[in-house]
């Protein structure tokens, strides 16, 4: 009799060797208590948090906390139903209006998570006779949405408008609708999409364009509307999807669009229809966090200044950091055997970052993924750089001077 | 179209052998994931290289049914003939 779990044997072996090599399971870190947006208690020690996606620090927004408390007191703590049944309260509609107005779009749909926003929009929009053109480094939620909708999926090389164009031109399917999906900022590497070039291809080929601004919402663009705003490409973007769980510090996903058919998508979108809606306190906190974000554009300026400081520090240390400065800065190491002790040593010395191992990384090399916050102080960033230097020395990681 | 399953299969094997980690004794009946120890991402990236050599796009859903090098070659020939 075959065991259901025999397929996990390889995984068990891989996890076992990671734990043996480093002394702990990097995927089971517990933040015992956050002390602020930037410091948490891990293994009983105060630890600098450089591996969250809390870019503006709004998970600790006073305005959002008070809004959540008031909403829970007034509305209760859950909706107990789907958006298309009993799970839509006035708060949900108000938040959708608020998000749509922020993006200057006709309408918005709010989902229970960002993952479900991609899963739902992509599967509802692209059916089996349609073609999806996905960036090769797309997030799992984009790939999963593609499979749920049974669309024909064509990958193009990461951030390459030329490769996308070639693949669109190669396809001989005049009667099929085509949807291009890209991300504003890629979550593992911090790479930013060349939105203006993708928009030009969309115009020329008649495809639709969706951008996932999960990591760029609140981060890029003069008003924080993301990579499309930053590159002046918003008019060509048909659908923007994103999440509340990064810059707004709560949880939930959204899609905004000017297409009036978005109202029909609500009735043709399984991850929207067959799950409970967000609870009132999360909806209220999200709306308040968005108000906070709009009221404090200086947070975005501080975030980019902090990202520049950390990035320059990595370059000065001779570590192999991403080429472009963005709030996601990945330090690439050559081997998993280097990455595991380095990640463990960083944690022991008081810095938490994300350990990303292949195949979840783009080019089969491991990453120490750092994410910067507006609320990090220059002193915290300096301390983190000193700890990176110490850990690299302790673990024998080569540091070459970069010709910056 | 001039490509046959045999010619496409030979081209795939030639491309695979350019990777020093791939066993030297592969043939068209080798299973891409099991015998070559490719993970799902490596398979998709490899298929992209083949696509560019043959000027064809293989939709990802087709990959689900492909186990061997010859399966991939047959799929590509089929797509080329439809084009």
TrEMBL record, chain A:
It comes from the Bacteria. Residues 47-385 form the Aminotransferase class I/classII large domain. Signal peptide: none annotated. The keyword Metal-binding does not apply. InterPro entries: Aminotrans_II_pyridoxalP_BS, Aminotransferase_I/II_large, AON_synthase_class-II, PyrdxlP-dep_Trfase, PyrdxlP-dep_Trfase_major, PyrdxlP-dep_Trfase_small. Its cofactor is pyridoxal 5'-phosphate. GO terms for molecular function: pyridoxal phosphate binding; transferase activity. The keyword Transferase applies. Keywords: Pyridoxal phosphate, Transferase. This is 8-amino-7-oxononanoate synthase. It comes from Acetobacter syzygii.
UniProtKB/TrEMBL annotation, chain B:
Residues 3-80 form the Carrier domain. InterPro entries: ACP-like_sf, PP-bd_ACP. Signal peptide: none annotated. Coiled coil: none annotated. It comes from the Bacteria. This is Acyl carrier protein. Gene3D superfamilies: ACP-like (1.10.1200.10). Pfam families: PP-binding.
């Amino acid at each position: 009799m075959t065991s259901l779990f025999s397929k996990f044997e390889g995984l068990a072996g891989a996890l076992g060797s990671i734990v043996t090599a480093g002394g702990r399971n990097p995927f089971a870190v517990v933040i015992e208590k956050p002390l602020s947006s930037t410091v948490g208690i891990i293994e009983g020690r105060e630890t600098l948090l450089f591996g969250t996606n809390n870019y503006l620090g709004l998970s600790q927004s006073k305005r959002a906390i008070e809004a959540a408390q008031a909403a829970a007191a007034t509305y209760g703590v859950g909706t107990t139903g789907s958006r298309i049944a009993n799970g839509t309260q006035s708060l949900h509609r108000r938040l959708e209006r608020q998000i749509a107005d922020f993006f200057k779009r006709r309408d918005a749909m709010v989902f229970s998570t960002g993952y479900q926003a991609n899963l739902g929009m992509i599967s509802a929009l692209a059916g089996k006779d349609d073609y999806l053109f996905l960036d090769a480094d797309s997030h799992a939620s984009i790939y999963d949405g593609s499979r749920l909708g049974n669309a024909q999926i064509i990958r193009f090389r990461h951030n390459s408008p030329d490769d996308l164009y070639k693949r669109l031109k190669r396809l001989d399917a005049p009667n099929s609708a085509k949807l291009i999906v890209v991300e504003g900022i890629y979550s593992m590497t911090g790479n930013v999409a060349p939105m203006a070039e993708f928009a030009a291809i969309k115009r020329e080929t008649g495809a639709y364009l969706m951008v996932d601004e999960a990591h760029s919402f609140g981060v890029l663009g003069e008003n924080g509307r993301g990579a499309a705003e930053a590159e002046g490409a918003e008019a060509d973007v048909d659908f923007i999807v994103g999440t509340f769980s990064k810059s707004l510090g709560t949880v939930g996903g959204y899609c905004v669009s000017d297409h009036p058919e978005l109202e029909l998508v609500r009735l043709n979108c399984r991850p929207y229809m067959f799950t409970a809606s967000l609870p009132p306190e999360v909806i209220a906190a999200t709306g308040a966090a968005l108000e906070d974000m709009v009221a404090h554009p200086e947070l975005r300026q501080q975030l980019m200044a902090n990202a520049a400081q950390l990035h320059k520090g990595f370059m000065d240390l001779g570590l192999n950091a991403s080429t472009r400065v963005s709030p996601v800065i990945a330090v690439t190491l050559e081997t998993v055997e280097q990455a595991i002790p380095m990640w463990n040593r960083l944690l022991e010395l008081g810095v938490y970052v994300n350990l990303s191992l292949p195949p979840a990384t783009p080019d089969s090399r491991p990453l120490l993924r750092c994410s910067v916050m507006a609320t990090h102080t220059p002193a915290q960033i300096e301390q983190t750089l000193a700890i990176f230097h110490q850990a690299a020395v302790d673990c024998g990681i080569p540091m070459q001077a970069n010709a910056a | 179209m001039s490509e046959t399953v045999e010619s496409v299969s030979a081209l795939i094997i030639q491309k695979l052998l350019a990777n020093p980690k791939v066993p030297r004794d592969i043939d068209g009946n080798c299973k891409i994931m099991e015998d070559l120890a490719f993970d799902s991402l490596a398979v998709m990236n490899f298929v992209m290289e083949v696509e560019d050599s043959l000027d064809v796009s293989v939709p990802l859903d087709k990959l689900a049914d492909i186990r061997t090098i010859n399966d991939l070659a047959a799929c590509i020939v089929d797509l080329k003939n439809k084009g």
